[in-house]
Amino acid sequence: MKKLVGLLVCLSLTLAQAQEYRVQKGDTLYSIARRHGTTVETLKTLNGLNSDVIKVGQVLRVSGSPSANRDWRFLQQGKAAWYGPGFQGRRTASGERFNTYDLTAAHPTLPFGTRVRVTNLRNGRRVIVRVNDRGPYIRGYVIDLSYAAAQAIGMSGTTTVRLEVLR
After folding, report:
1. Which pTM was predicted?
2. pLDDT averaged per 10 residues in sequence order, the chain, 167 residues
3. DSSP secondary structure code for residue 146 in this structure
4. Long-range contact pairs involving 48-56 (C-beta distance under 8 Å, separation at least 24)
5. CATH (residue range 17-67)
6. Which of 84, 93, 144, 162 could be stapled to 119 by a disulfide with Cβ–Cβ 3.0 to 4.6 Å?
């Protein structure tokens, strides 16, 4: 009986912390999850969603709160490559023209405009880039950097990096 009472108390405290959020124009599950310190999978589970499609005005249950989860960060580690002169002036997936001398990057899932701190794990050098393209498309790679970003972290060829999304 004590276990049941304890379980009910925990459940009621959890439900009391749950909040609702009304979807705004431009929102994605990723942006909502990030804002509330949770994951896309958690949002989908809480709301019985089978896909990533959401509509403006839709009310979603979110767990936690922005202030309670302000230390949340997206971290990823893996191989990085760079792309340069051959892509100069071409349109990126975001629609902007690629400039090899801008501090930009391609990432498979992060929203365009996301700022990411990239740390070269071989030498500790870091650079902040803005995601404006999709890629890399090679298994085991987590990011493609512009030539300027690669130079900033002392990278030639490929290297192992840590990615940290900045707020």
Report:
1. 0.58
2. 41 50 87 78 80 89 53 77 92 95 94 93 96 92 96 95 88
3. E
4. 52/28, 54/23, 54/27, 54/28, 54/29, 55/23, 56/23, 56/24, 56/25, 56/27
5. 3.10.350.10
6. 162
